Amino acid sequence: MAATGTATARARHKSMRAAKWDELEAALALVRAQGLLAGRRGHTLRARVPAALVAAAKRKAGVASDTRLVETALAALVARDDYAAWLISQRSTVAPDLDLEF
């Protein structure tokens, strides 16, 4: 019985990783379509970050190189959907005297 539970958990984890990879690929496709990946790769970024953080991010993103990791992370940031933040910012913006009855 425990083996079945473990197999189910592994399948669920694999499915979640596949969904995350699809999300990252969609972000890369979006920025590619916007032309943000075109042209000369002349900008160099340097940062001091914990090795464990980089390793975990690479595993989660499914990438091996630092360049691909940074490119994927930047694409995910640029492609992020800000709808939730926008929706929250609209709180209490409807005039109190607006007639909403149909």
Question: How would you describe what is shown here?
Answer:
The protein is mostly helical and 102 residues long. Helices cover 63% and strands 0% of the residues. It has four helices and no strands. The chain has helices at residues 2-33, 51-61, 66-79, 83-89. Helix 1 packs across helix 3. The termini are far apart. The model has no long low-confidence stretch (mean pLDDT 83).
Please render the helix and strand layout as text.
Blueprint: H1 2-33, H2 51-61, H3 66-79, H4 83-89
Helix pairs in contact: 1-3
Poorly predicted tracts of residues: none
Can you tell me the overall shape? Answer: extended
Question: Would you count the extended β strands for me?
Answer: 0
Main β-sheet, in a few words? none
**How large is the count of helical segments?**
4
Q: Span from first to last CA?
A: 56 Å
What is the rounded Rg?
Answer: 20 Å
Helix content: 55-70%
As an assembly, this protein is single chain
Mean pLDDT: 83
Strand content: under 5%
Write out key terms for the chains shown:
102 residues, mainly alpha
Quickly describe the structure.
The chain contains four helices and no strands.
